[in-house]
Amino acid sequence: MANDKNAGSGKLGTFGYNALALSIFILLWTIVSWISESLFLPTPWTVLKSFLDLCTYGDVEGISLGMHIFKSTLRIFAGFVAACILGIPLGILMGLYPRVYDSTKSVIEPIRFIPPVAWIPLVIVLLVGFSRYAFIIWLGAFFPIFIGTLLSVRSVNPTHIDVPRSFGAKRLYIIRKIVIPSTLPDIFTGMRVGMGIGWDCIMAAEMIGGENEGLGVMILKYAELIRIEDIMVGMIVIGAIGFFINEIFIFVERRVFKWKEAIVIS
Amino acid sequence: MERELIDVDMSMKFDNLSVLEDIKFKVHENEFLVIVGPTGCGKTTLARLLGGLSKPSSGHVTIAGEDVNPKIHNVSFVFQEPSCIPWLTIWDDISMGLEIKGNNPQTAETKARIKEVIKLVGLDGFEEYFPKQISGGMKQRVAIARAYATKPDFLLMDEPFGHLDAQTRYLMQIEIMRIWEREKKTVAYITNNIEEAVYLATRIIVLSKLPARIKAEHSINLPRPRDLTGPDFLRIRAEITEQCEVVG
Amino acid sequence: MTNNYAEKMKTMGLNFFTLAMVLVLWTLIAYWQKSPFFATPYDIVLGFVQMVTVGDVEGYRLWSHMLHSLVRVSAGFAAACLVGIPGGLLLGLYPKIYDRTRILVEPIRFISPIAWIPMAIVLLVGFSRYIFVIWVASFFPIFVSTLWSVRQVNAVYVNVARVAGASRLFIIRKIIFPSILPSVIGGMRISLGISWMCIVAAEMIGGQMVGIGRLILKSAMVTRMDLVVVGMISIGFVGYATNELIIFIEKRIFRWRAAVSIE
Question: What is the pLDDT of residue C182?
C-alpha cells in the first residue's frame, strides 16, 4: 500500500520501456534489412507499403485484404457457432448422465485424438465449397467446448446442488439455477480455446482447400511468389484478429463472471 | 411436553458398511434437539436422512406421520460446508428457498420476509454483495437466513459452525439462540462440540462411534442465557464428555 | 468393492456394444452407398495391411511415415522445451524484463503457428521447415506456462528457505523448480497436442513425400479413402500414445501431489 505511488509510476515506466523496446526493435530491423539488402528481409516500410497496397489494390488476383479477412472470419463464425450449438447442450447432457459418456467413450475418444487438420483431405473429397471449411472449424472447436462443458458439469460443487434439493427443488430448477451458472465460466474457457484451434484449422484448411479467398491461402500465394513482405502483412493481420477476439472473450468473462474469486488468464 | 413431530426408527448401510444402527428417537415440536457424537461417526449421514436428502436402508424417518420429503414438507437444511451460491447475491441466495416453495420473489410479501430474515441475522446493508466479498461467519449467517426464510416446520443444522474460528463460533451460538428464541422452530442441531451442545440444547442425544448407536439422552433444563462456567453446566458437560470418550 | 467391479465390467461391455454398433452401421451405410468415397471398416483393415506390408502408392510403408512425423515433432518439441523452459524461468525470475518487452513477444503469440508455414517454406528447406513450425507451435504454451507459474510460486515456501539462509540457486533448485514442474508439464501436453496438428498441416503443405500428413493428402488425391482413414487413425494413435507417455511421467514425478489433472 505504501508503494502505491511507486506502482503508479512503475506502470507508466513499463509502458515507456515497451515503447522503447518496440522502437529499438524496429530500428534494428530497418538497419539490418538495409545493410543486407536481402530479398528475404524487407524493411518495416516495405511491409507497411504492402499492407496499404493489399488494402487498396488487393493481391495478385485483385482480391482485397478486406475480402480475405471477411471470408476467413465468416467461415470461422459458421463453424464456431455450430460447435457451440452442438457442444454445449451435448456436454451438459452427457455431464448430467455420466453413463452415456462413459459408455460411448470407445467411439468419442479416438476421434478426439485425431487432429482436426488430418480431416481436411477427407473433407476435400466428401464436401464442397463453404461446407468444407465450416466442417473443419466445427470439428476443431467442438471438442474443447464439449469436453470443457462435460467436465465442468461433472465437477459442480455437490453442496450447491444440495441447497435447492434440501428445499425440494425440481431437477430442472437445479439445472437452471445451479448447474448452468456454475459451468458457464468453463464453457467460456472452452469457447476461447475452441476459437483458437478454429483459427489454426482455418489457416490449414484454406492453404489445402483450394479456394482463392481467405487469409491462409493469401499468405501461401505470396510464399509461392517469394514475397516476404506480403506474407508478413498476412501474419500480422492474423495475429491482430486472434488477439482482438481473445480480448473480447476476456472482456466478456470479466463482465459476466463478477462473482468469481479470480479469473485465470492465459 | 409438546406433541411429537418427527419419528425416527431406522438403520443405514453403505454397501456392506453399517453406518447407523437402530437409531430410534422422536423430535418434539419447538424443541432444540442437539445430536452429538465423535468425528466420523456418521453424523452427516444422519442429518441427510433427517432432511430427506437420502433414504434409510431400513426403517423410517417420518414427519407428522409421513416419510420426510422436502418436496412435500417444509424442512430447511443448514449445511456444514460453505453453501453460499457464488453467483448469487446475498439477497438472491436467501430468496432461493422461498422461490422453490412457490413464492414469487418479486411480490411485496416475499420481499418483506427476505428483509425480515436479513435483519434477523444482522446482514442489513449486504444484500447486493457476492459471497466472495463477505467473511466466513457472514456466509453462515446467509445459510441460516436462507433456512429460516421459509418458516420451516423442521430446521436441520449439520455442524453449521464447524468451519469457523472459536471466537466467531461463540458469537454465532449466542446469535442462533437469540434467533431461536425470537422465532421458535423445531430444530435438530448436529455437532461434535459438547460445550456447544450443552449451551444450545433443550435435549441432547449422544451417539457412539461407528457404527453409530444412541448411547445416552439428556434433558437440559438450565435457564437461558446459559453460563458456560456455572457448576451445573460443567457437570453436564463432563458427564457427556465421559460418555463420548468411553469405548463401546 | 464387488459392486465397483461389476459396474466397471458393465461400462466396458456398453463401450464394446457402442463401438460394434457404430462399425455395423458404418459398414451398412458403406454397402448401401456403394460409393468409392466411402470405405468400409473391412477396406480399412485391408488398407492397413497394405500399408504395413507393401506401402503407399510410392512404396513408403506406414512405419516410415510414422517415424518421419515422430522425428519431426520430437525435434521441434525438444527445441521448444530447450528454449521455452529456461526462457520462461529466466523471465519469470526477472519479471521486469518480460513486462518491459511484452510488446515484442505478445503479438507473435497470437499468430496461428500454421500461418508460419508459408514463411518456413520460403526461408527454410527440408527437415528444418518442419522443425521450425513445430518449434513455433510448441514454444508459446511451454514458455508462457513456465513464466506464469514462476510468478505464482507460493511466497511462503520461498521465504521458508530464505529464512533458513538458503542461497538463490538453492531456492531455484529446491523450491521454484519443483513447484512449477506441474504447470510446465501441463504446458508441454498442450504443446504436444498443437504440434501434432501442425505437423499434419506442415506435411500436407510442405514438399516432402513422407510423413503421415502427406500420406493422408496423397491418398485423398487418388481417392484411396481406406488409406486416408488409416493415416488419420495412425496420427490419432501416435498423438494419444505420446500424451499418455507424458501423463505417465507426470504421475511418476508428482506422487506428492494430491490429484493429477486428467483430461
Answer: 86
pLDDT in tens, C110-130: 899 999 999 998 888 888 999
pLDDT over 80 (residue A9): no
The CATH-assigned architecture of domain C40-253 is Orthogonal Bundle (1.10)
Give the Cα separation of A119 and A126 in Å (integer).
11
C144 touches chain A (CB under 8 A): yes
Tell me the domain boundaries of chain C: 1-34, 40-253
Instruction: Report yes or no: C72 and C134 within 8 Å, Cβ to Cβ.
Output: yes
Question: For the segment A154-202, what is each residue's pLDDT rounded down to a tens digit?
Answer: 999 999 999 999 999 999 999 999 999 999 999 999 999 999 999 999 9
Asked if the model's pLDDT at residue C260 lies above 50, the reply is no
pLDDT digits (tens, 9 = 90+) for C16-43: 999 999 999 988 888 887 777 788 888 8
The whole-number pLDDT of residue C257 equals 58
Scanning C183-242 for CB atoms below 8 A from A yields 193-194, 196-198, 200-201, 204-205, 212-213, 216-217, 219-221, 223, 225, 228-229, 231-233, 235-237, 239-240
Q: Can you tell me the distance from the alpha carbon of A219 to that of A236, in angstroms, rounded to the nearest whole number?
A: 11
H/E element, A5: helix A4-36
In this prediction the ipTM stands at 0.88
Separation in Å, CA of A115 to nearest CA in chain C: 5
The 8 Å CB, 24+ separation contacts for A249-255 are: A249/A188, A249/A191, A249/A192, A249/A195, A252/A188, A253/A185, A253/A188
pLDDT in the model for residue A263: 45
Q: Starting from the edge strand earliest in sequence, which strands make up the sheet with B154-158, in order?
A: B75-78, B154-158, B186-191, B32-36, B203-207, B214-219
Domains belonging to chain B, first-starting first, are: 4-245 (3.40.50.300)
Gap between the Cα atoms of C108 and C14, Å rounded: 46
Amino acid (one-letter) located at A246: N
Domain ranges of chain A: 1-41, 42-256
The sheet with strand B58-63 has its strands ordered as: B17-28, B4-14, B58-63, B66-67
Distance from the Cα of A167 to chain B's closest Cα (Å) equals 5
A7 has pLDDT over 50: no
| A257/A182 Cα distance (integer angstroms) | 10
Q: Are B212 and B37 in contact (CB under 8 A)?
A: yes
In this prediction, residue A68 carries a pLDDT of 92
Interatomic CA distance for residues A210 and A204, integer angstroms: 11
Q: Which of A208, A220, A204 is nearest to A139 (CA)?
A: A204
Residue whose C-alpha cell is 418479486: B106
Is the preceding omega at residue A164 within 30 degrees of 0, hence cis?
Answer: no
The domain A42-256 is classified under which CATH number: 1.20.58.760, 3.40.50.300, 3.30.420.40, 1.10.3720.10?
1.10.3720.10
C99 and A17: CB-CB below 8 Å?
yes
Q: What is the 3-state secondary structure (H, E, C) of chain B?
A: CCCEEEEEEEEEEECCEEEEEEEEEEEECCCEEEEECCCCCCHHHHHHHHCCCCCCCEEEEEECCEECCCCCCCEEEECCCCCCCCCCCHHHHHHHHHHHCCCCCCCHHHHHHHHHHHHHCCCCCCCCCCHHHCCHHHHHHHHHHHHHHCCCCEEEEECCCCCCCHHHHHHHHHHHHHHHHHCCCEEEEEECCHHHHHHHCCEEEEECCCCECEEEEEECCCCCCCCCCCHHHHHHHHHHHHHHHCCC
* Total residue count of chain B as it appears in this document: 248
What's the rounded Cα separation, in Å, for the pair A170 and A212?
54
DSSP A91: H
Return the number of CB contacts < 8 Å for A and B.
64
